[in-house]
Amino acid sequence: MSARRTRLAAVAPEERPEAVFVAVERGDAAFRDVRDAADGCRACDLWARATQTVFGNGPVPARLMLVGEQPGDQEDVQGEPFVGPAGRILDRALEEAGIDRERVFVTNVVKHFKWRPAPSGKRRLHERPNRTEIGACLPWVRSELALVRPEALVLLGATAAQAVVGPKVRVTRDHGVPLESELAPLVVATIHPSAVLRAQGGPAREEAYAGLVADLRAVARRLAAA
Ligand code: URA
User: What is the whole-number distance in angstroms between the Cα of residue 94 and the centre of ligand 1?
Assistant: First the structure.
């Protein structure tokens, strides 16, 4: 059983973070069924070395849906997307952009953590998913989209943007502007929060972070005007 399911069973209803469990709480059978089916996904080999499937999380439906690349080490353990270091950057950026994460559906294009051992053998290092793995996982993100029906879809980083919109998208060039897509009324790519962590030096990091916040703020403004 995933950490999420264990917690759901163990925590009294009044103590649960409302939005996280809202789809389950209100008995959204379609969402539950899809999520449970994804728990047993064997469409590529990544499941074998991952702890669990990390499915999307948040209210269903939701006006805003965010899609990242794949769960990291902590997400793999906790069973929820964006709860590790990149998630903390994302949380800060959302708050600065005036977006309440509790009202956002957050997910990844790939639902299992792909990793290799660090030379020390003590840590698990992120490995980028390949085209086959991404293709095998796409039906899940399509199902999430069909259930969440977001007004705005934000793709975090090149892997998500290219998997969902197409290989021609370049996040450095196209970030923050509406992309041509039928998937939602507004589809926007922006940098991945991990790119902020990877940026070398304080000013580069601040610039990357400011870009992420600016793109999210523009989406929030458009949603407010809709
Ligand atoms: N990076 C992602 O793309 N997704 C996560 O859930 C965590 C880190």
Answer: 15
Residues whose CB falls within 8 Å of the CB of residue 15, separated by 6 or more in sequence, listed in order? none
Q: Tell me the whole-structure pTM to 2 decimals.
A: 0.88
Q: How many domains does the chain have?
A: 1
> Is 34 a domain residue?
no
Is 12 among the domain residues? no
Q: Hey, which of 94, 171, 192, 196 would you mutate to test ligand 1's pocket, going by the most ligand atoms within 8 Å of its Cβ?
A: 192
Interior/surface letters 192-220, b for 16+ CB within 10 angstroms, e for the rest: bbbbbeebeeeeebeebbebbbbbbbbbb
Convert the pLDDT of each residue in 18-74 to its tens digit: 433 445 445 578 899 899 999 999 999 999 999 999 999 999 999 999 999 999 999
Pocket of ligand 1 (CB under 6 A): 68-72, 75, 81-82, 84, 86-87, 108, 194
